[in-house]
Amino acid sequence: MSAQPDHAPAPPAPAAAAQLLAQLRIDRRATSWVPAFERDWAKALEDSRHTYSLTPLHEVVRAWQLRVAAAPAVDAYMESGKDETGFVDLDDVLGSRP
Asked: 58-76: per-residue pLDDT in tens?
């Protein structure tokens, strides 16, 4: 029996982080996204140094790739003028999280 899951995602390409950062720098959200990505990357790099694993770095790249991919849908939703006044805040439902 293997300790590895059968459905483990493939790791990002070696240059994925640099390509992602270049993409973030030309985005209209660059002033907030670039520092956030660099902060996440620095923490993942430090975690990788302590654990001798590239997993934290891969997770940062995957998370930011998903954010970038979802951005057009979020923009379209925000521009559509949807009214969110009838929704309940998730923190109210789940309570405070650590």
From this structure: 999 999 999 999 999 888 8
